[in-house]
Sequence to fold (866 residues):
Amino acid sequence: MTENFPLYLIIVLPLLGAALNLLFGRRMGNSAVSLIACGAVASAALVATKAVYSLATHDLPPNGMLIDQLMAGDWIIAGDLKLAAGLMLDHLNSVLVLIVTWVALLIHLYATGYMEHEPDYARFFGYLNLFTGAMLILVLGDSLPVTFVGWEGVGLASYLLIGFWHQEDKNASAGRKAFIVNRVGDFGFLLGLCILYTVIGTLKYSEIGSHLFELRLPFWLNWPAGYWVAILLFVGCMGKSAQIPLYVWLPDAMAGPTPVSALIHAATMVTAGVYVVARTHFLFDMTPAAAQMTVAGIGAVTALFAATIGIVQRDFKKVLAYSTVSQLGFMFVGVGTGAYSAGMFHLMTHAFFKAGLFLGAGSVMHAMGGEGDITKMGGLGKHMPITRWTFFIYCLAIAGIFPFAGFFSKDAILAGAFASRFTMAENAPHWAKSLIDLYPYVLWGMLVLAAACTAFYMWRLYFMVFTGKFRGTHEQEHHLHESPAEMTVPLIVLAVGSVLAGFIGVPEIMAHAFPESVAHTLTFFTDWLSPAVVPMSPEPHSHSVEWGLMALALGVSAAGIGLAAKLYRGGISQTAVDMKEKFSSLYRLLWNKYWVDELYDLIIVRPLKVLSRVLWQAVDVVMIDGGLTKVGPAVVGFFGSVTRRIQNGDVQRYLIFVVVGAASVLFFSTWWLPHKGTMGKTTVEKRRVTLDLGEGKVKAGRLRFRVDWEGKGEWEQSGFTTLFHDYPNSGTYNIRVEAQDSQWGFTSSNSFPVKVE
Amino acid sequence: MQQFWQNLSVISTEHFLILGVVLFAIGVFGVFLRRNALITLMSIELILNAANLTLLAFARAQQDMRGQALALLVIAVAAAEAAIGLAIVVGVFRNRHNTNLDDLTLLRY
Fold:
């Protein structure tokens, strides 16, 4: 089932690169820094490839995995909580490990060109390596807490890189926004972990699947524990993967350098949520399918919502950012409808073309001197042919045009959504069940609309930037140039990926047309993932329906492209300007992004600010600064004014205190203690005489007592302060008591006359 | 009383202890009452030597060399203390042209 492999190397290498660059990078030259950064990621990529190769070729059963037990059972120990830390590589995360390492390598290479004039070169690459290491921890972790460590690590790296140019306040606050919004999600994630641990007592991925019984038990509001865990984990995924309502940070995150947007905010980090849902699919698969429906619903709404915003935006990277949000929504519909391999497949193809789109955007902005407004561009195609034609391929891929990668992955998600069935609870009313039966078609419809919007805004972008006349300044036009090789080579590699990546996930019905050996390659992706995620069993619908859906999706995309071409080919047409006037209210709605940021500002940020102001003005200024800081010194000052008189500077008087103090200590511990010990009273009860010594001031055991009860010289020894004696005859006796201090040896004696009846 | 005078003819441990107490008392009162820093230092020496005398007396009575060793240690410490103390006194004198402890009241509230 499992085999050991030094997986830790994949993580340690980038982290080592980060440490070297962050600690010593300032003193090294730029070439040394880029050598370390790229070398670290390249070696991690090679180790990862070797690991996946071992996974594929060794005689492991299909659900086998490579493991690396780092800390078996002694990572976190706190009371009943006992967690192990380890790494694992199976069919599911091998896909991500390869994407992360290789795409990261390409983007590192690209960044050596893009950032060449950056004074803080080493810091940038240090952070980039840190991100890669953290992302690999996230992906390779064998349990949710290890993943969570990586999860927070990528959040940190993302924050650092968004605010990389923190000298500008706008960038720094974009970083903060990303961090804080993610914190909301991470809180849900952590809460989910806590519930999961209390219910099943383990957080290892390989063990969650065998505790489904406990997870089905009602937990809160009569919903099963598994549902709450799934929803809370998904809240974390909403934050990290920018889904409604926590997507607001991603468009702002474009304030970071473009390679960062490509690596973190398009290809890898933001897909972590999709990975976590696929990884913990046991929780989402449970019936009733409320968790799945939540995921799929939010995904579909996000996909459509973000795609409509993308239509009117003018900032190059903002369009791509909304496109990323929208595509992540597609992935969530995939994993939410049980079509896990479709979701993961789209994750992979999206990594290629979206990273490529961002790198293309970076290349354009590099040439434009940092200008990002597409209304100021135009006709760049003839100045930068490589960027133009690779961008052309990415746009075809993301629009879902056959046979580019996006076509196959988007088709898989659409087919999955169309074919999905959500099981309701047994006792659900009939009308609810029939309503739920419509749900897949609603999802599908929203996705098709979103796909049409996607095709339109991507091609609008393409036509506005690369065709027509240049709309910027003369100076900018003069400066236009193709980017250097270290930037164009990654573009080409990613373009090749965007063309070819789709061919390992061809739908079943298409693959059938080919001979057995070819068909095997064509459905490779689904076959590879099927052991890791239970393949969904969609209600088989007829081939004609499937072909029809495919053709419809293709037609809708083509229509989107056609419309974009009509409106924007060769420059912004008059029709486009007229339409903007005609639908001005709709345009304003989209241009202002549905006023979501303003809404959040109104209902969350402002109340918080008001509360903070109240706390500051009322609590801090009035109560603490005005009250406590005055009362405290007054009290201390009062006692000080009394006691400071002792400190009059006369050393000899101090000495008198010392000597008198020492003498009293000696007096009390030598003379006083045995003296007090022999004081006491006697109580006579018939013939029993009880002697109570020390008058309650002497602890038992502090003194050694000797008592002569009858005055005959017969001594009884004791350490207790309460003694008694039974006299055989009545009469008058003189009790003699001696007490000795066991420490100093001082002795005192006393006598008690008693009369016994 | 006769016993006491008889005992006086032989120097016993008690004699040493009585001498030690007397020396110690003289030293303590010297420290308390004299205002000259130099005299105070000398009084401290008296206190230390009273302790030494007691140590040696017991060491002789119990035939235990540890008391003598401790006395040697005290002498060493006393030497160091005297050196430092004298240095301070000299320093004070250079600054203020007297060593009257009553005037050295800078460290007060």
Remarks:
- The longest strand of chain A covers residues 65-78.
- The radius of gyration of chain A is 39 Å.
- The CA atoms of residues 185 and 236 of chain A lie 4 Å apart.
- Chain A touches chain B at residues 644-645, 647-652, 655-656, 659 (CB under 8 Å).
